[in-house]
C-alpha cells in the first residue's frame, strides 16, 4: 500500500470512530428512503410540501440533509408519504450490502447508490450477491 493510500485509510478509520460519521449515515439513510418513497408515489417536492403544509424550499433542504431532523419532523414526513417511521438498533457490522431499487425507481439512482442492508459482525450466514448488489467490507 503506498503512502497516500495508507494516509487515506488512517483518515477514514479515524472518521469512522466519530459520532458525526454515524449521524450523517442516519441522515443519508433517511433522506434516501424519502426520495425512494417519493418516487414510488410519483410525488414532486412541491406536492410533498403541499402535504406537509410547508414551502418547497424546505423539502429541498430536507432532501439535502440540511435540516435539524427531530423525531417529530421525521414522523411528519413519513406520514405525508403514507408511511411510518421505523427506528431500530442494529449491531455494528462486518459488511455492508447495497441493494439497488428495481423497476422505475432504479432510473432515479446512480449505479453506486442504493439501499443498505446491514449484517451484524460475527454473522456466519451469507447470501449470494445478486447482479444488482455491491458488497464491501467495513
What would your notes on this structure say?
This protein is α+β, with helices and mostly antiparallel strands and 138 residues long. It folds into 2 domains: 1-87, 434 Repressor (Amino-terminal Domain); 88-138, no CATH class. It has 5 helices and 3 strands, in the order H-H-H-H-H-E-E-E. The protein has helices spanning 3-15, 19-41, 45-52, 56-64, 71-80; strands spanning 93-99, 115-120, 133-137. Helix 3 crosses helix 4. It is elongated and about 50 Å long. Mean pLDDT is 77; it is low at 111-138.
Break the fold down into its secondary structure elements and pairings:
Layout: H1 3-15, H2 19-41, H3 45-52, H4 56-64, H5 71-80, E1 93-99, E2 115-120, E3 133-137
Helix pairs in contact: 3-4
Taken from the alpha-carbon principal axes, the silhouette is: elongated
Give, in order, the helices and strands: HHHHHEEE
CATH class of the largest domain: Mainly Alpha
Counting structural domains, the number is 2
Distance between the termini: 18 Å
Radius of gyration: 17 Å
Which fold name corresponds to the CATH topology of the largest domain? 434 Repressor (Amino-terminal Domain)
Give the DSSP E fraction (strand runs of 2 or more residues): 5-15%
Within the largest sheet, what's the order of strands? 2-1-3
Question: What do we call the CATH homologous superfamily of the largest domain?
Answer: lambda repressor-like DNA-binding domains
Largest sheet: 3 strands, antiparallel
Protein structure class? alpha+beta
* Mean of all residue-level pLDDT scores: 77
In total, how many beta strands?
3
Helix content: 40-55%
Extract low-pLDDT stretches: 111-138
Given the structure, what is the number of helices? Answer: 5
CATH architecture of the largest domain: Orthogonal Bundle
Amino acid at each position: 500500500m503506498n503512502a497516500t493510500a495508507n494516509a487515506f485509510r488512517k483518515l477514514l478509520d479515524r472518521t469512522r470512530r466519530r459520532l458525526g460519521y454515524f449521524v450523517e449515515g442516519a441522515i443519508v439513510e433517511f433522506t434516501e428512503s424519502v426520495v425512494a418513497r417519493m418516487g414510488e408515489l410519483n410525488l414532486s417536492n412541491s406536492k410533498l410540501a403541499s402535504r406537509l403544509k410547508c414551502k418547497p424550499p424546505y423539502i429541498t433542504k430536507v432532501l439535502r440533509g440540511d435540516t435539524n431532523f427531530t423525531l417529530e419532523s421525521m414522523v411528519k414526513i413519513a406520514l405525508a408519504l403514507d408511511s411510518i417511521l421505523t427506528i431500530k438498533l442494529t449491531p455494528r457490522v462486518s459488511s455492508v450490502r447495497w441493494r439497488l431499487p428495481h423497476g422505475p425507481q432504479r432510473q432515479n439512482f446512480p449505479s453506486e447508490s442504493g439501499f443498505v442492508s446491514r449484517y451484524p459482525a460475527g454473522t456466519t450466514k451469507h447470501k449470494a450477491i445478486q447482479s444488482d448488489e455491491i458488497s464491501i467490507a467495513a
